[in-house]
Amino acid sequence: MVSARRPGRLLIALAGACAGLQLLQLCFVPGPQVAPSPSTDAAQFNPTVAASAVLPALTMLADDAEAKYGDYRRWSSVLVPLSTLVFPAVGFGAFTLYLFSEDFAFQLIP
C-alpha cells in the first residue's frame, strides 16, 4: 500500500532553508556604506576592554607552574616504581590468572 505524501514535510524543509539563508547573512561583514558611524563618546564603559586590561595583572600574581625540587623528589620516588613495577605486575598477573581460568574464551569453544 502506498501512503500519501505529507505536504508538511516540504513546508518544514522550505522553512529550514529560509532560516538557513537568513543566518547566512550574519557570516559576512557589511560593506563600508552599511557600517555604523564610530561613537564620539569616549567615556563609555566597555566591560570586555576592562576585563582584557585586568588579565595581565592577574598573571603577575600567579607563581610559576613548576614543581619545587623537594616535591619532585618525593613524587618521583613514589610514582616511578608504582607505574613501572607495581601496575604492570598486577595487570599482567590478573590477565595470566584469567587466561588459565575456566571462564577464558568460553564462547569460542563449541
Written overview of the protein:
By secondary structure, the chain is mainly alpha-helical. It is 58% helix and 0% strand. It is built from three helices and no strands. It has helices at 7-24, 47-61, 69-99. The longest helix is centred in the C-terminal third of the chain and has 31 residues, at 69-99. The protein is flat, with a radius of gyration of 33 Å.
Short summary:
The chain is 58% helix and 0% strand. It is mostly helical.
Q: Percentage of helical residues?
A: 55-70%
| Total count of strands | 0
- The gross shape turns out to be flat
| Major sheet description | none
Which residues sit in consecutive blocks of at least 5 with pLDDT less than 50? none
Please report the number of helical segments. 3
Rounded mean pLDDT is 79
| Beta-strand fraction estimate | under 5%
Backbone structural class: mainly alpha
Using the CA coordinates, give the radius of gyration. Answer: 33 Å
Q: What separation lies between the terminal Cα atoms?
A: 46 Å
Characteristics:
single chain; mainly alpha; flat
SSE blueprint and pairings:
Elements: H1 7-24, H2 47-61, H3 69-99
